[in-house]
From TrEMBL:
UniProt keyword annotation of Acetylation present: no
Ranges that cross the membrane: 38-56, 63-85, 105-123, 135-155
UniProt domain DUF2231: residue ranges: 32-168
Keyword field: Membrane, Transmembrane, Transmembrane helix
Pfam families named among the record's database cross-references: DUF2231
UniProt keyword Transmembrane helix present: yes
Organism placement in taxonomy: Bacteria, Pseudomonadati, Aquificota, Aquificia, Aquificales
Protein name as catalogued: DUF2231 domain-containing protein
Length: 173
């Protein structure tokens, strides 16, 4: 008997329709940025851990970390480049002023991190050429700062996607 009452309950209330959603679709190039970014996040952190391990074991030289440092710079450059391409494609789409501020901060930080990764690579080369512990410690400090920067950059990117739905098709396919 109670079920019959609930079955009629929908007739007692007016149907409220949601306001029409703005349909936003993004170019396919937007899909390139996220996979590239993952390498730019993980490589500085991995290098930092490798270098701290080497420091604790007393190892000074290492060609592998130079190679990974070079890959790190390439990955940060690729993330910045794909981010720039994506930004150029989506900046004309309607987003809130707050989301736009985060987007511009995200873009500027990406360029800054690329330049900083070049500095970190330079410190690695100097530590190998000059063989001074001072440059090795500066390199490790640079990796720590770069790791913090890419983590913050990832946080900003996450905010853009999950808080503001930037780069995510809304109301579309």
């Amino acid at each position: 008997m109670n079920l019959w009452f609930f079955a009629l309950a929908h007739e007692a209330h007016a149907v409220v329709q949601s306001p029409p959603m703005l349909q936003v679709t993004y170019p396919q190039v937007v899909k390139i940025h996220p996979p590239v970014v993952h390498f730019a996040i993980v490589l500085p952190i991995l290098l930092f851990l490798i270098e701290v391990y080497k420091l604790l074991r007393g190892e000074e030289k290492g060609g592998v970390s130079l190679l990974v440092s070079l890959l790190m710079v390439i990955s940060v450059a690729s993330a910045a480049l794909t981010g720039w391409v994506v930004h150029e494609r989506i900046e004309s789409l309607p987003i809130t002023a707050e989301a736009e501020a985060v987007l511009h901060l995200h873009e500027r930080l990406g360029i800054t991190l690329f330049v900083f990764s070049l500095l970190v690579l330079t410190l690695k080369v100097m530590s190998l050429k000059i063989s001074r512990r001072f440059f090795s410690l500066l390199y490790i400090l640079g990796l720590l700062l770069l790791s913090g920067g890419v983590l913050y950059q990832g946080y900003l990117g996450g905010r853009l996607v999950y808080q503001y739905s930037v780069g995510v098709p809304v109301g579309g396919r």
